[in-house]
Amino acid sequence: MQALPRAGLTNASEAASAQLVDRAIAAFDPPLPLAVAFSGGADSSALLLACHARWPGQVRAIHVHHGLQAAADGFQRHCEQVCARHGIPLQVCEIDARHETGQSPEDAARQGRYQALIQAAQQGFSGADGGGLEAVRSLALAQHADDQVETLLLALSRGAGVAGLAAMPEHWQRAGLEWFRPLLRVPGQALRDWLGQRGLDWVEDPTNTDQGYTRNRIRAQLLPVLEQVFPQFRSTFARSSAHCAQAAELLDELALSDLQAVGMPPRLKDLQALPQARLGNVLRHWLRSVHGTTPSTAQLAQLVAQIGVCTTRGHRIHIKVGCGFVQRRGAILDWYNS
Ligand SMILES: Nc1ncnc2c1ncn2[C@@H]1O[C@H](COP(=O)(O)OP(=O)(O)OP(=O)(O)O)[C@@H](O)[C@H]1O
């Protein structure tokens, strides 16, 4: 962990870049009070301090101590110092973010962090005099345009469908709170320029440069090349993601209406009446929304093919799908968890 003191800015392009942050925060209009998820890194430092400058007294910070790396105590100390210096109420939550077998470490940390953020926001904050403050209504995360591109490229590298390519949403609701990512159109460098312009420091998480993580390799190796070949890649990729988000919404709506038509559990005869793409779409939706399992592309293709040739009474269907099996039971398809 390293605290990075910044000197003043040196050129006009850095100043123009920093203005992108001010513009994003000027356009941000969350219900107040607002809590910012504050890791101590550059992105959430800029978000927290820009929001605090815009709505003094209405902004709080939540820091999650993951307990995963030795540097975590230093991150917490840094966050405490920043919040004390600026008079921002802070809550620190400690979580045990170790991952279970089969779960990715990043996923475990992310899920634990979301739970902790919700708990902290619901628990409430104390003011400088120890009295309780008004309950938080919104929560903001600091992911920015580069994070969005990395998420999209990661999804492409896994062969994701339109739902995966939709990348991260800017706004959603969860646990009675409004959640926002107000910096999704701001390049990462602009956040560092904004902090630099004000002489503000942040901590650098050493795992962010660990080239063992695909995300870090995308950031260090791919983004500089994209910058040269497609200078507008942040906004054009974001536009593609927005198209995918719309397409994913339409596919969900279509699957819902098809699921009503084929019944639950689905009737073979009605499934067979659907064109192949719609059949795959409704099956994926049924398995995910009703049984909480996601079929692989190969499993879904096998299931679609089997349904297509299931024309005799004795035809057996029994296919491993996600974490269970789909089987034929008379006129219907059934799913069970082994
Ligand atoms: N330990 C933490 N405590 C509170 N919020 C966090 C923490 N780690 C991440 N976040 C929030 O989740 C967002 C996404 O996390 P991610 O790990 O992708 O970014 P990061 O590299 O930690 O960003 P930053 O530059 O703000 O540190 C962060 O921008 C921040 O708002």
TrEMBL record:
Its EC number(s): 6.3.4.19
Positions of the tRNA(Ile)-lysidine synthase substrate-binding domain: 268-320
Domain of life: Bacteria
Localization annotation: Cytoplasm
Assigned keywords, A-Z: ATP-binding, Cytoplasm, Ligase, Nucleotide-binding, tRNA processing
Domain spans labelled tRNA(Ile)-lysidine/2-thiocytidine synthase N-terminal: 35-220
Reaction(s) catalysed (UniProt annotation): cytidine(34) in tRNA(Ile2) + L-lysine + ATP = lysidine(34) in tRNA(Ile2) + AMP + diphosphate + H(+)
Domains as described in the record: The N-terminal region contains the highly conserved SGGXDS motif, predicted to be a P-loop motif involved in ATP binding.
PANTHER family, sorted: TRNA(ILE)-LYSIDINE SYNTHASE-RELATED
Sequence similarity: Belongs to the tRNA(Ile)-lysidine synthase family.
Function, in words: Ligates lysine onto the cytidine present at position 34 of the AUA codon-specific tRNA(Ile) that contains the anticodon CAU, in an ATP-dependent manner. Cytidine is converted to lysidine, thus changing the amino acid specificity of the tRNA from methionine to isoleucine.
HAMAP family: tRNA_Ile_lys_synt
Name of protein: tRNA(Ile)-lysidine synthase
Species for this entry: Comamonas guangdongensis
Gene: tilS
